[in-house]
Specification:
By secondary structure, the protein is α+β, with helices and mostly antiparallel strands. It is built from 4 helices and 15 strands. A 6-stranded mixed sheet has the order 10-9-15-14-13-12, with no helix packed on it. Strands 5, 6, 7, 8 and 11 form a 5-stranded antiparallel sheet that branches. Keywords: Signal.
Length: 238
């Protein structure tokens, strides 16, 4: 009987923390359902981020309700070891503001790292210096028709977090990201944006569109080619 008495507080405590991620989603959607998204989106981001940090099982959960209601976007790395989240935290105007994180699991615990990118479009993976490197293609939205496409490089750390990695070698410096600014008014013949960043199937080359001083595409690209430890700028290609 004494053992039962001792176990009861533990049982009740376990039940108190047994809230599933689906229930958490449902409760948060209900809480903010009648409020304008762009007035509460940063509160929503904080609530979701805190939940992810506390619950390692979130790594394998897709958050379908949040993706439908709150503009949350999720991408996994090709090896499924990194999970990327992008939250829309803007004010709803012509400019876009996004907040991104990378989630990893280390020794049964979740590690969540904030990263500085725009809206994540895709995550690619390569091997450089015998370690995985993750290339994150993302999009920045400025005022009116202005914006930028970028490719950011990250690598894992022993702690389970990720950090930027300088893999792009220009003529003068090494960079952890390359980008091209654009003006959508220059998309004269199509409603779709051209490929401002393109890669080949094996990621041997990464090409950045060449623009003139008025941001008009020139039909040419600045090419970075893969070497053993970095991507080397090679010049202009068609």
């Amino acid at each position: 009987m004494k053992k039962l008495v001792l176990l009861l507080p533990f049982i009740f405590m376990s039940q108190a923390y047994a809230e599933t991620l689906a229930q958490f989603e449902k409760q948060l959607v209900k809480q903010y359902d009648q409020k304008a998204f762009y007035e509460v989106n940063q509160e929503i981001e904080s609530a979701v981020v805190n939940k992810i940090k506390q619950d390692p099982s979130s790594f394998n959960y897709s958050f379908p309700a949040f993706q439908d209601h709150y503009n949350l976007r999720i991408h996994f790395s090709p090896d499924k070891s990194l999970k990327f989240y992008t939250f829309d935290i803007g004010s709803g105007g012509t400019m876009g503001e996004f907040s991104s994180y990378v989630q990893t699991q280390k020794a049964g615990k979740t590690v969540l790292t904030p990263i500085d990118t725009g809206f994540i479009l895709d995550v690619k993976q390569i091997q450089l210096s015998q370690q995985p490197v993750y290339l994150v293609e993302n999009y920045y939205k400025a005022s009116s028709c202005m914006g930028a496409y970028a490719m950011n490089a990250f690598k894992p750390t022993p702690t389970g977090a990720v950090q930027t990695f300088k893999v792009f070698q220009t003529k003068k410096v090494q960079l952890d990201a390359i980008q091209v600014d654009f003006d959508c008014k220059n998309n004269e013949s199509s409603d779709e944006a051209p490929d401002y960043i393109r890669t080949d199937k094996n990621l041997n080359n990464i090409d950045i569109m060449l623009l003139d001083k008025n941001y008009k595409p020139q039909g040419k690209y600045l090419r970075y080619s893969k070497k053993n430890t970095y991507y080397q700028y090679m010049g202009v290609v068609k």
